[in-house]
Each structure stands twice: as structure tokens, then as C-alpha cells.
Amino acid sequence: MKSSAELRRDALAIFHAGVRAVDPAEAITRHLRLDRERLQVDEASYDLSTFAGVYVIGAGKAAARMAQAVEEWLGGRLTAGIVNVKYGHATPLRIVGVHEGGHPVPDEAGVRGTEAIIALLRRTGQKDLVLCLLSGGGSALLPCPAEGITLADKQLTTQALMACGARIQEVNAVRKHISRIKGGRLARLASPSTLVSLILSDVVGDDLGSIASGPTAPDTSTFADCLGILKRYGVTDKVPCAVRAYLEQGAGGAKEETPKASDPAFARTQNVIIGSNIQSVRAAKEKADALGYHSLILSSFVEGEAREVAKVHAAIAREVRRTGHPVAAPACVISGGETTVTIRGRGTGGRNQEFALAAAVALDGLAGVVVLSGGTDGTDGPTDAAGALADGQSVSRALAMGLAAEEHLGENDSYRFFHQLGDLLITGPTFTNVMDLRLVLVG
To answer: Which of 130, 358, 400, 427 is close enough to 310 for a disulfide, judged by CB 3.0 to 4.6 Å?
Structure first.
């Protein structure tokens, strides 16, 4: 049987293989073709010689890396461009300007970057082509509050929704309805230009209306839906009065709804998913197979409370060890998607670290098992870690150091727990983002 050190080494190799598979530059290369002046984007073809200008806009953790790839493809054909990225996620560009801003809570720098994008779009017209580059993090990095709502109002609303355990689709539905640019409104701002959006998905199911809060896609949610979300999670009184009033006015018909599928702006818009979680999961499986594991993809649609999802993964590990089901050891069970954390304590961590800590508790005493959970973007919550690794001895090792795993879990304090154990997964910015990758290795 492989040692814990060997399992950990393999888990890291498998995780990094999954991240490499969704590199934005490679993703763009799979979907773009340039033959002289003809640009092919999947099934659509654009004659660049017929456009007066070609512009690039975008937002997200991977936006700068995506813009770098577009620059390599189109070079001097580009007229100008601006993308917004998270602090520390900028890359050197020759033509496209880069604005850094706050994530997951938007800040004033993000607002300035968004205003610059809007100003650039005002320069475009019917004879121009606009390439929009979107990836995970785009919701926070395209802050442009609706009239009567301040940035502080949006910040408090975002924090309240993320702390209550709301699904990202629900968080984004509210974000769309208190924004001047999200929920299809960017497509309106770009109209009548031809708009092509290249999208790296960080949303379960790759829903175009949810990725980066769907700035270039029709929106199916409504003001009434948003009020329902606040009520469902008991945060109606926790969001600012201005936000609550704006949503109520919208539900009553006093505010314009987000653009729906019939809106004319979408007649000249092409939205293309260029990368998603399943690609990362499949690449991880290929690497696991190459390392000699019997691998199994559990699902790329995993959602739910991180600690509850962890219990299920731990139960599968015990089943593999005991009966050889659903796959025989040496086994690698892989899942993707994005869990949530309902914050009840005062600790520091993220959904992947909380998953790993809950798994460590559930696996306590089981030999020959290693669990890894990491964000493909290199960031997990408000920390410098992508996630963490755990095994059946994590709890006992921690106890010898005076750390009680259950107490840290109760305080949502997974970061400090794994930091002292030396088991944080630190990658730095990966310049991509397709949600999370979870691995259960049974030796």
C-alpha cells in the first residue's frame, strides 16, 4: 500500500493536472481560428476587414490571461481594450489595459475599471467588433451600482448573501438586479456593435446567466425572485434599506427588469463557453489513471454545505477500503463543482479548507486515505490558500499539537488548523477559474 506521503504527492500531481487543463490560453486556442482576415469562433465566422475597430473588454480572475491569448491571436488587428482582474492576477499586456480590483467584495478600484469599460464601449458603433472575456470573479470585478445604490450597499449585500450560505446563482441574481451592467445590460451597452463573449465557466451547469452575473446573456431571474432569496435565507433585514427598497420597487414594476431573451441586443451577440469544470475533472482522471489508480468521476455538479459534502466523500473512502466499491483500491474518486459555507464562527477559512477539515474528522483513524480539496483559481475564501490536504491521522496529529479539530470546524477556522499542520494547499494565482476540484485517494 502506498504511504501517506506518496498519496499526498500523487494528489498534488493530479490536482495540478486538472488546473493545467483549463489554462485560458489553451481554452481560447481550442475555440478560435484565424485565417488571414477571417476569425472563426466555433460555428460563427467574422470577416475582420469589414470592422472599423476590434475592441477587447472583460472581467474575472482569468481575464488578463485570456486577453494575453487574444493579443497573441489578433496582434495589431486590435484597436484597444480594458479588462478588470483581481488584485495580483494581472499579466503583462501590450494593447489591452488592465485594472485590478477587489474580490469577492467589490471596491472603488473595481468601479473605476468598470467605468473605463463603459467609456470604451461608448466609442464603439455598428461597424465595430467587441470581444468580451469573462471568467469567475467577474461579478465582483464589474461593480456598477444601480441608481440610488452605493458601492457600500453592494458590499454589504454581497457579504450578507455569501455568509448565509446562498448558492452562487442566487447571489448573482441579486447582484444583477442592483447593477447597471450585469444581467445582460453590458450587451445593451455594447449594442449595436457585434459582441462575442468568450467565457470560462465557474458555475455548476455552465449557466450563461450566472457566470460573472451574465453581463452579456439574457437573464431569467426577476426582482421578485431576488426578494424571495433574501427571505429564504433570512437576510432581508441584513441588506441595506436602499437595496431592499430598490428590489421592492422593481418587483412592483417601477424599475426596468433585466434584459430577457427577446431583447434586440442579443441578436448580434455570441456567447461561447471555452472552459468548464468537467474539463478539469477529466484531466485529473487521466492523470490518476496514469499514476496507476482506478479512478472514478463522481460528479462535476456537486453543491451543498461543504462539511456535509465532505461526510459523503469520507463515507465513499470507507466503502472503498472496506468493500472495494464503487471502485477498487488503489482508488482515486474525483468530484467538481462548488460547495458553500454557512458562517457561524469567527475563524478564517474557505469552502475547500472547511471540506478538508470536515473530511479529516470523518476519516479519523482510517489509514491509507488522503483527501485534497482546492479551488482551481488558487484562492479559497479570504485566504492565500487554494485549499488543503487531510488524512486519517490529521485529527490525531493536530491533537498532539493542542489543536481540537471539532472546535476549529465549529468556528469555521480551517485555515489556522491546516496552517499549523503544514497542510494548506498554496498555489498562488493560477490565472484560471472553473470552480473546485476534490480528490479522495485510497491506497
So the answer is: 358
For 77, 151, 358, the CA distances from 172, given in Å and listed in that order, are: 34, 16, 27
CATH number of the domain enclosing 329: 3.40.1480.10
pLDDT tens sequence across 93-152: 999 999 999 998 899 999 999 999 999 999 999 999 999 999 999 999 999 999 999 999
Q: Are residues 410 and 390 in the same domain?
A: yes
> How far apart are the C-alpha atoms of 210 and 225, rounded to whole Å?
14
Q: Is residue 88 part of a domain?
A: yes
Same domain, 303 and 431: yes
Asked if residue 242 is part of any domain, the answer here is no
Q: C-alpha dihedral over 160, 164, 168, 169, to 10 degrees? A: -90
Which one, of 404, 301, 291, lies nearest residue 357 by Cα? Answer: 404
Position 228: which residue type? G
* DSSP strand pairing (53-59 vs 128-134): parallel
Shared domain for 284 and 266, answered yes or no, is no
Question: Is the peptide bond preceding residue 259 cis, with omega within 30 degrees of 0?
Answer: no
Q: Each residue of 159-185: pLDDT tens digit?
A: 999 889 898 889 989 999 999 999 999
Helix, strand or coil, per DSSP, at residue 384: coil
Whether residues 120 and 45 fall in one domain: yes
CATH of the domain at 75: 3.40.50.10180
Residues 122 and 35 grouped into a single domain = yes
* Residues 262-279: tens digit of each pLDDT: 999 999 999 999 999 999
- Indicate the number of domains in the chain: 2
Domain shared by 88 and 11, yes or no: no
Q: What does the longest C-alpha to C-alpha distance in the chain come to?
A: 70
Phi, psi of 41 (to 5 degrees): -120, 100
| Amino acid of residue 88 | G
Q: Nearest to residue 207, comparing CAs of 195, 196, 219? A: 219
Q: What is the DSSP string of 139-208?
A: HHHS--BPTT--HHHHHHHHHHHHHTT--HHHHHHHHHHTBSSTTTHHHHHHTTSEEEEEEE--STT--T
What does R_g of the chain's alpha carbons equal in angstroms?
A: 22
Q: Label residue 206 left, alpha or beta by phi (over 0 means left) and psi (-120 to 50 means alpha).
A: left
Could you say which of 244, 275, 306 is where a domain stops?
A: 275
Q: Are residues 266 and 354 in the same domain?
A: no
Let me know: does 99 contact 116? Beta carbons within 8 Å: yes
Provide the residue range defining the domain that includes 343: 4-16+278-442
The residues near 312 (Cβ < 8 Å, ≥ 6 apart) are none
Contact indicator for 74, 33 with CB cutoff of 8 Å: no
